[in-house]
Amino acid sequence: MDKLASDPRALKSYLRFSYMPGEDGLFVKDRITCPEIRFACEPEREKHEYLEELNRILDDMLETERQYCDAAFLSSGVDSSLLAFGIHARKTFSVTYEEEAFDESAEAQQAAERLGSEHHVLRIGPADYFDATGEAMACRGLPTGDASYIALFLAAREAARYTDTVCSGEGPDEMFCGYPCYNSYFDDPCEDYWIKANTIMDVGEIPEIPDYGGDGFLKMNAFDLTRWLQGSILPNLPAAAKGAGIEIRTPYLRQDLLEFALALPVRYKANRNMGKLLFREAAQRYVGREIAFRAKRGFPVPVRKWMRVEPYKTQILDALTGSLAKDMLACADIEGILKAFYVTGNETVWKQIWEMFALIRWLETLKGDHNAFAAIL
After folding, report:
1. Which residues, other chains included, contact 141 with Cβ-Cβ below 8 Å and sequence gap of 6+?
2. Which domains does the chain have, with CATH numbers?
3. pLDDT tens digits, one per residue of 50-72
4. N or C end of the chain: which has fewer CB within 10 A?
5. How does DSSP assign 325-355, residue by residue?
């Protein structure tokens, strides 16, 4: 039928990790893949020396960014807050939901009031979200099962009503190990913990990662700095920017900050309680201790709840029981996964359903020309 039919590796990679690794570089200068990540082996320095160097890099980053941008996405977390405060943002943007457990807008509002920015809050409901899915997927060169991408797409479109440039806080979670999987690793420090932490569906080949002396923490960090950042996070940004007609800047994606992070000892990155440890210490000068050490919430979207509500449940069931899904997703137990979620109430499979649904929506944007997918791959 097309390349997916004859060589399903790309599809299975998507189903395992919710994205297909692209060919673009991690940063503008270089293409970095898993085998090319090298953690520095220089003599360890005192903590205050690392902190002083990080402060210098962040100060330079923020001083430079002030020349180009005075608007920022703002969530409850330290990364976006540091950017907003550091560039003295005049406009800030966040999203909100009716579902309280997923709503970060109150913390963002408090930060904006302290900053004195003109703050805009976009309320996203299930209709807004599902209605935008097809358009958002059409802007992306390869599909993504990252549910937060649709929210980013809508947030960018809202920001474009007030500015032509906005900065976003991608990078520190991968550089300085900010994801919860780094904390839980310390309770289960196995060499291949990264596989368990990142696998959505247990299909296809597992990518090779250098041994790193059997250090599971470094292997997980290498995966995030390459496959995850390169294949999922970074492609979301130009896609959202394209759909909104806006420039999204990513100040943290600097070579000097990456090189610093690669040379930083693990104990200054994460422990079982928190990630981005040294980064948070540096951020205190701009945002204060409360924001700097606030627990990470990510960019949560209540899609798992909306998937159970009509008419969105029917949209998903129609998409995943149609002929396109049967042709493209033969390697997945679609019936069993849908039954687990909708009949037995197994919440753990919601990501599997969403990534399959997102793939079908993306394929539909090709308007039946599935050979276009082969050309992309």
Report:
1. 22, 235, 239, 376
2. 3-16+303-376 (no CATH), 26-292 (3.40.50.620)
3. 999 999 999 999 999 999 999 99
4. N
5. HHHH-TTS-HHHHHHHHHTS--GGGHHHHHH
